[in-house]
């Protein structure tokens, strides 16, 4: 979402490209971090990114979900260095809410 609007809609591999799927994953990370900042008060509170689960709205036969998830993982490591290294699952799904291309669940360890 950007300003309340869904930026990347549709199935990766048919309605949007892999490159746009990776951008959608990056945007999801930024939205996750925004929520963490709102809750924790600052991204300086993030001790470690523990896990990402990346759901990719996939066209039939599309099997490059890990490459889409790399968009998220690479950004996290770029932002947090060693503390951004995390475990990850990349899952292809037939539908996501609002026809989103990518959805991410993030688990982060934050200080009080």
β-strand number:
3
Describe the global form: globular
CATH architect. name: 2-Layer Sandwich
Report the average pLDDT across residues: 97
Major sheet description = 3 strands, mixed
| CATH 4th-level superfamily | RutC-like
Q: How many domains, in number, for the residues? A: 1
CATH fold naming: 60s Ribosomal Protein L30, Chain: A
Question: What's the SSE blueprint?
Answer:
Layout: H1 18-40, E1 46-57, H2 65-80, E2 87-93, E3 102-110
Parallel strand pairs: 1-2
Antiparallel strand pairs: 1-3
Helix pairs in contact: 1-2
What does this structure look like?
By secondary structure, the protein is α+β, with helices and mostly antiparallel strands. It has a single domain, classed as 60s Ribosomal Protein L30, Chain: A, CATH 3.30.1330.40. Helices cover 35% and strands 25% of the residues. The protein has a 3-stranded mixed sheet with strand order 2-1-3, covered by helices on one side. Helix 2 links the parallel strand 1 and strand 2. Helix 1 crosses helix 2. It is globular, with a radius of gyration of 14 Å. The N and C termini lie far apart (28 Å). The relative contact order is 0.27. The model has no long low-confidence stretch (mean pLDDT 97).
Explain briefly what this protein structure is:
The protein has two helices and three strands. It is an alpha+beta fold and 112 residues long.
Any key phrases for this structure?
single chain, 112 residues, alpha+beta, 60s Ribosomal Protein L30, Chain: A, three-stranded mixed β-sheet, 25% strand
């Amino acid at each position: 979402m950007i300003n309340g609007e869904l930026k990347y809609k549709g199935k990766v591999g048919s309605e949007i490209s892999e490159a746009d799927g990776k951008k959608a994953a990056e945007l999801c990370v930024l939205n996750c971090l925004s929520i963490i900042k709102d809750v924790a008060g600052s991204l300086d509170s993030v001790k470690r990114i523990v896990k990402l689960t990346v759901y990719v709205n996939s066209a039939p036969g599309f099997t490059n979900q890990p490459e889409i998830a790399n968009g998220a993982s690479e950004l996290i490591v770029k932002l947090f260095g060693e503390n951004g290294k995390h475990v990850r699952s990349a899952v292809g799904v037939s539908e996501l809410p609002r026809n989103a291309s990518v959805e991410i669940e993030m688990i982060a360890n934050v200080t009080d």
